[in-house]
Structure formats: C-alpha cells, structure tokens
NAD(P)H oxidoreductase RTN4IP1, mitochondrial
Amino acid sequence: AAGGRALRWASGRVPARGLRASPRARIAMPSWVIDRYGSNEVLRFTRDMMFPIIHFPNEVIIKVHAASLNPIDLSMRSGYGATALNMKRDPLKLKADETEFPLTLGRDVSGVVMECGLAVSYFKPGDEVWAAIPPWKQGTLSEFVVASGNEVSFKPKCLSHTEAAALPYVGLTAWSALNQVGGLNRSNCSGKRILILGASGGVGTFAIQLMKAWNAHVTAVCSHDASTLVKKLGADDVIDYKSGNLEEQLKALPLFDFILDNVGGSTEKWALDLLKKWSGATYVTLVTPFLINMDKLGVADGMLQTGVTVGSKTLKHLLKGVHYRWAFFMPSGPNLDEIAELVDSGKIQPVIDEVFSFSEVPKAFLKLEGGHARGKTVINVISKQ
C-alpha cells in the first residue's frame, strides 16, 4: 500500500505555485477550542472557528466524523510542550504578534475527504480516511480538519468511524516505539519475549496486539481489573502491579528481549536489569523529558539538556550490554496503511473505553483525566456513525 501511495504521489502534477484556497462558501465551523492553558474550564465551544484552508498542494480537508482523546490532549490543555510546539508552528518567528490561540485539541480523526490539494492524486473527495494530526497543527475536535496527504490513510473497511478514531495516534506511537525505534517487525519477532509496562492503556493495548500479530511472546503489566482485557487481546502472561513488589515478580520470569515502557518514573531504574545482556535487547520508553526541558529551559538549553540526558543514559546502558532508547509519536500515512491491513485481517481491533457526543467534550476530558481508562475515549462529532 505504501509503495502504491508513493507511485501515485510521484505521478501527481504539481502547479507552479501549488496553492489553493478552500471554497469560501464556508468561513466558520463549530469547534472546541482553548484560549489559554489551564484545567477543564478553559475548554470553549464556538461556532466561529476559522474554516481550514489548503495552503500546500499535498494537503486534504477532512470532514470529521469521529475523534478521540489521548493523554497528550490533557497535557496540551495545561500548556505542556508549548515552547517546542510553537517553535514548530512558526520556526522563524515570522508571526511575532500572533499566538497559537484559539487552539483546537484532538489528534485522531476518522472521516471523509472533502477537498484535495492540486498535488494529491492518492485520495479524492468522498474517500473514507483516518489520520493522526501532529500536535503542532489545529486538532480534530472540530467539524473539519486539514492534514498533509502523507499523514492520511484509507480507513479500515471493517471499522465504523467511531471504532477507527480510537486507533491512529496510539497505533502510530506504538509503531514508532516498536518498529521505527525498536527495530521489531513481522520477520524478527517470532519467539521474542516482550514486556509491556502500562499495558491496559491505548498504546499498551495496541502494542499487545501488534506483537502477537508478529508472533512474539508478550508479558503485560497492568492492574488486576484490566487482566481480562489484556488476556483477551492475546497477552501470554499478565502481571498485576498491585499484587506485591512488581520488580520481584518480573525478576522471577525469564529475561526479556524488548521492553516497552508506557509508565516512566522510577521504572527505568530497575527495568533494564530484566533484559538479556549482550544480545541486542532493547528498552524503549515513551516517557521522556524532551518537551518539559524546552518548556523549563527554553529551546536551546532544553535541547542541550535533553541531548546530554539521552546520550549519557544510552552510553551507560550500552556498557552494560543493553540498548536504551526514547520514542515519540510520528505521523505517517504509509504506516497507517500497514496498520489498516492488520485491522482488516482481524489481527488488531480497537479498544474503546467510552464514547461521548460532540456536546460532551468537557465530560470526555474529565473521564480521561480520571485515569485508569481501559482503551480509548472516543467522541462522535457526527451523531450517527
């Protein structure tokens, strides 16, 4: 699918300027926005959010049928990563007098293509698609959203929009950690022992299914009330982190080839000792100080501090015979193509904790804020799916 995507884009005609405005019949749309950072009271519903415009020839406008919330939406609501994200939005500071507000949150989208840029030949209006919109762009808690064509993929045929909206962001985050950073794929996972810390959340439930689809042995760590879910998803061993000392429980098991850490905190102080030494075993964490460093120290000092931290940890653990890595969400339509194939073949299914209507967005944020979700919090922007 990714190869076909590349060929179709390569054959697309790119005009001299490559710019195209959206139809002016619509100048505003309903959205949930924030005008400042804070807790749930900063969420505001408006019918006057600016309608998205195609600025680049490879962009598409999507009519949002369903979206979902991720922990990053809670963090961004409170201002997490604002320094780095604003630098990405305007790296040359050409718009010194402007701010990121009003800001629409929401990363996942499942919907229908409404308009395509002049260089887009892989999609056409009416196509059902899904995507994960990067955090530096206006989000999906709105009626329409604009995305780069290389961030978009055809929605799995077997899923409704509500179901599909639960997967893109967590799927691509797990794919980044396991495949892009961790080097795991369908040809090298058979028989490998994989440990997933924080297995019952969105990324964890996806990672379990992906690793089982690639024939790995999966040990999942979660609370007891989530054990039935993770077993149903295919986990071979389930460890309840509340039933005694977690470190001692895991040390009683055979060593692992790969650890995915969705928890962070003090975990990495002992988790790397669970890996097989001098065998290429790898620990990948999704909990990093990168954006926090930039918020606290500024862009230059934050990047320097981050580089020193990851460099020193990588060297320290390499000398002990294991690999230490950080991973981040990476938008990718071609990777979503591969995920869609796994979904349509029945190897991966969405895990949804609760579905809310578009009018209940603040309530959905409170649900996510409460923690201990089993899967994703989904929002139906269009009521009937």
Notes: The longest strand covers residues 59-69. The domain at 182-326 is CATH 3.40.50.720 (Rossmann fold). The CA atoms of residues 33 and 104 lie 5 Å apart.
